[in-house]
């Protein structure tokens, strides 16, 4: 009875058609991205099957080569779901590589001590940004921009030169392989998948996760519903800082050096992965699983271009941009349908 | 009957904003098992009092006692924990989440920190069921119209403390204009629920602009004026006339005067003709003719299609059938610009979101429509602009009479006048006013109604939408009656047209 | 409060804080470089720290001025850095293909091509934002990501160097004793101010940014206006791109204009234009851009290692933003005049209410 209430701008009384319902499903973008990944992979298979593209390891390498991006993108997913944005991701990663390399190589600290320190610094940086965003009502864009400058600057303060890591514990960790059906994964890839699973659990099975969605849906409402909206926002940025630092550690492991210019602009890749993964940049809608596919698609573009051989590296950027554009347009048509 | 102890007592509440004293020493009591109306004109301090009570604002003076203990809330969640729940006028829920989640968010049933989704959905469905509502709790909230979302908000606040015993259970339920978006059936449903909760000992603070509703459901009322307490009365001890006088602090004759004005303007030749204009999901195709100098009032329940009709005639929404001719010329109505060029003006019912640019000054807001019509390359010369603005500020008595004031700072009535000035300055042939008197004080209301009469006498056609039938009757030459998104009748106003007659037309949907 | 009304009126002027920061930054230099403010004439050219601040800040001012209008409509343009790179790359690659690189007609044509590409980028952004209704930050992200790839594609991943005297003028030449780029900047700023304040464009832009739906219902063709500001912004970025590549006589698809969008947005914010749209101030933006450039210069002159430049920039961003945050001011200076913690409904700020109440008082007197 109440559902038949007349209300201005209410949807028409007739139940939405099947097609409309499919289009309005929030899971659709994730499926589209997954489908795109499969299509691209199939194209790769048919084009480069003589070059070993079909090997399991080529597929697993996607996880190995993009583990740091996945972790960073998971952090960015939290921020974007909450309706914010974090531009400091790349800088925090760069800083973490420098910080780690410097502590391990120049100060001779053991890795077990350095890892928690690096994570703590990243999380604290995120906390500070969240605190300023929340308590002084400054746009996240600007605050995290300051974070971008600050952490990149701190990199340079540590050293202008890159520091390569010769520590044996680092290299043994970097070279460790975990065999997975016909191939292997690196420790970094395993860690990134664990982070992904944890993020999925947090977003869907904890109150905190649901608050992130609520804030992204309507922050004002979340506040008036009595949700601890401020704390949630700060926690989201803290988490993003933590993820960035963890991504930085994985990157260090991957590259085995610290460099003040490492991961410049990586925040764009992370944001692109999140968007391609179907999360609305306006917040409140999306899945962390989509982010995985977003990262895989970006990674696959790189591999495809490498396999092609004749294409230059800048085609990666162009292809990413084109994909980003396509997904943004898809999102747009979907949200406009949902509103009418 | 011996009075029980109040569940909530606020004494000497003071709240100041820079330059404004919103509340000066207000006392307020709320007893368990009563429905208590909080009344006052715009700016009386109702919302501020509620926001102080719920911890949105901190108070600058006075005490709040809940169940005999002094409390001070610093956030809405603290108030909610203590058993004070609020349902605001605007639906404050998250449209991207499901109905069930909206009901339980913040107090989801968990085990070892893991949300128990099945239990959550089941409990939500039970709660919705118990309240006699037919809502699919798994659907996203955004798939429901606003009125249903409002009911979900009430379900949510009623359900506080249900899950795993957190919170103290709702002792005080604040309903801040919950009925403004509900139709009569839903209002009755809500009232039944309110009475049931009252029976369970919940104290309900009810804010509504509809006096009839207050007399229908409330036990006691507190009246505020200009941030001060005017009085607390049992509803049965004070009649409506007495109440209105308390609220406005003066008699009603300003409104009565208008009775003499009605109807004697001569209606001129045809101005606008709509043939089979309609829009799916908005309003069924209708025919309508508006003549010069004519006031057409639209009567109908909320959601009957009044606003939708007006929006089509302005091109705010695009009609998907029919055609509109204005002054003999076909107008495509593909955008507001088409209608504006043909001499139509439209004051939306949503002043804040669809009318004003709050950041801009009164002057800039007033000249906006004229400037938009001239295009950006032809600015209005400063001298001419200032003269025009000054003229309309004076004519409409906009206060403060300062063209440099930011429009966001003005009171509701003055904001409405700024919008009127914006359109009058373009000298439209047809002025569409969608609930121009909603949420503004009675003085400004009378001024706006007088203005409509005089505009019509000068030959301007007016399409007038108001929630109150009396208001429509008083002003209109012709009354269009809407029901279920159809224009069902057009009645020429006359002595035989009474509110009862219109209600009958709305109820039967037929033109007798 | 003990402050006099005049002082309060001054501190509440929208340019007060930006100018104050600029002045403080300039003064910091004096102990380190006593002749900081002196300007010398050498070879018919004026030299001095102030001149070089404006000279090196020119591209940023240009980009920031365009960005101001975009931000005022409630948008943002992240693609300006990529547009700078594309314009420089196209222009330089065209000039380098010429037999006679000094031929004025060839240089003008090259610049025309470069600017046309910038306009196309602007149209694309405007199309996505105004026609497709995509959030600006997302819409412009596309060219931000893909644009550098395109620029590298044009230069084939190389740095293209040119050797053209006429082209050198725009970014590195002198005219009437001053760097030519200062004139370019002055012209663009003057045109922008005239365009926005002599016509009704400024009002309409502020209206669109302040309340888009109300603007539509009042008959403002906001799509047209939005497309216009994105094109204008891209054009400004294009001119900046010419300036940067002319100054170095080279086009670097990878690094030209890198992060300039962030600096530009920063300049706009320092200048007092809200990222939420609405009211804007071109003057404030110019001051904001000068603040950023002065900061860089100051770091050089006071002898702090240049690598800390970014840390200082971060500090300035934070300080300026905190100063502009009403909440921060209330907490630090206001002595708790604002109660609202968590503030769902933001209390009117003193800056907002002051003009109204003062005006009312005045009227009561008269």
UniProtKB/TrEMBL annotation, chain B:
Domain of life: Bacteria
Record Pfam families: ABC_tran
PROSITE patterns: ABC_TRANSPORTER_1, ABC_TRANSPORTER_2
Domain ABC transporter: 8-251, 266-509
InterPro entries per record: AAA+_ATPase (IPR003593), ABC_carbohydrate_import_ATPase (IPR050107), ABC_transporter-like_ATP-bd (IPR003439), ABC_transporter-like_CS (IPR017871), P-loop_NTPase (IPR027417)
Keywords on record: ATP-binding, Nucleotide-binding, Repeat, Transport
UniProt xrefs under SMART domains: AAA
Chain segments annotated as coiled-coil in the UniProt record: none
Entry's Gene Ontology molecular function annotations: ATP binding
Gene3D superfamilies (UniProt xref): P-loop containing nucleotide triphosphate hydrolases
Protein name in UniProt: Sugar ABC transporter ATP-binding protein
Phylogenetic classification of the source organism: Bacteria, Bacillati, Actinomycetota, Actinomycetes, Kitasatosporales
From TrEMBL, chain C:
Topology in the lipid bilayer: Multi-pass membrane protein
Name of this chain's protein: ABC transporter permease
Keywords: Cell membrane, Membrane, Transmembrane, Transmembrane helix
Entries under Pfam families matching the protein: BPD_transp_2
Cellular compartments annotated: Cell membrane
Species lineage: Bacteria, Bacillati, Actinomycetota, Actinomycetes, Kitasatosporales
Entries under PANTHER family matching the protein: ABC TRANSPORTER PERMEASE PROTEIN YPHD-RELATED-RELATED, GALACTOFURANOSE TRANSPORTER PERMEASE PROTEIN YTFT
Residue ranges, annotated region (Disordered): 341-366
CDD domains (alphabetical): TM_PBP1_transp_AraH_like (cd06579)
Ranges annotated as biased composition (Low complexity): 344-356
Transmembrane spans: 15-34, 46-71, 78-96, 108-130, 137-154, 174-195, 227-244, 256-277, 284-304, 310-328
Primary site of residence: membrane
